[in-house]
Amino acid sequence: MSYVLAIFIVLAAGFGAAGVTLFVQKSVAAELRREHHEVGSTVFLQLGVIFAVLLAFVFSEAWTEYNEASAAIELEVSALHGAAIIAATLPAPAAKQILTREKAYLDSVTQSEWPIMAASRGEDIATDRKLQDLIQVVANLKLTDPSENAKKPEILSLLEQAHEQRAVRIYQAGSGIPGALWIVLISFELILVAFVVLSGLRYWTSAALVSGIFAASVSSILVVARLLDYPFEGALALPSTDFAVVIGKVTHLLGPIG
């Protein structure tokens, strides 16, 4: 969902509710609406509490998953950068072998996997194989110098961390709020807006203003929750900037090696 579509939905909800209110003001007498005010206000408050709790839960869940995806990216690139730094201290043939494959994985993440996560909310199998290949190369690495042997477990540990965080990133790419829950939320909003539209306010200007602001306000919260729902698509999509930065650092480490 783009910002343009998000703003359009909020404005459409506000103006739509105001327009319906104007129609109701002309079609239904104020006295008739006031007769149902006492019962209507009680039901409105009860439904409002249920809706508020449900909305708070959904928004909190969307925000938490969005932050978890962002944290997974930071931890993954941090682990990859740490592995590259240690690998650069190995003998040139081994260092080149590791750094070349790590750069290939990073390039694949930014160029191939990121668009796939945005489009289909899944992983790129070829990118996953590049990471597996990198881990296997390090695991099978033969070092003749005993002083270098301690670095191999450190690199493997960091690559395992990167693999774990990649799994979290991929999971969050496809994990969203169920469609049935969105239907319930939107249904609650429509019901509450209907109560406001049928309120016993006498003046059409104030009635239209109140219903329009109410509908737009609730819709804006739902729209923001939807923008946060899938962290790699839409206007608030997490960028691959951190991976691009690490690509530059790995390229720099590869420079002296050749």
One letter per element, helices H and strands E, the order comes to HHHHHHHHHH
Distance between the termini: 44 Å
Query: How many helical elements?
Result: 10
User: Uncertain runs with pLDDT below 50, 5 residues or more?
Assistant: none
Share of residues in helices: over 70%
Structural class: mainly alpha
- Rg calc: 27 Å
What is the average per-residue confidence, as pLDDT, rounded to a whole number? 88
Q: What is the count of β-strands?
A: 0
Shape: rod-shaped
Strand composition percent: under 5%
Polypeptide structure, described:
The chain is mostly helical and 258 residues long. It has one domain. The protein is built from 10 helices and no strands. The protein has helices spanning 3-27, 30-35, 37-87, 92-120, 125-139, 146-149, 151-174, 179-197, 204-229, 241-257. The longest helix has 51 residues, at 37-87. The protein is rod-shaped, with a radius of gyration of 27 Å. The two termini are 44 Å apart.
Write the layout of secondary structure elements.
Elements lengths: L2 H25 L2 H6 L1 H51 L4 H29 L4 H15 L6 H4 L1 H24 L4 H19 L6 H26 L11 H17 L1
Keywords:
10 helices; rod-shaped; mainly alpha
Provide a compact summary of the structure.
With 258 residues, the chain is mainly alpha-helical.
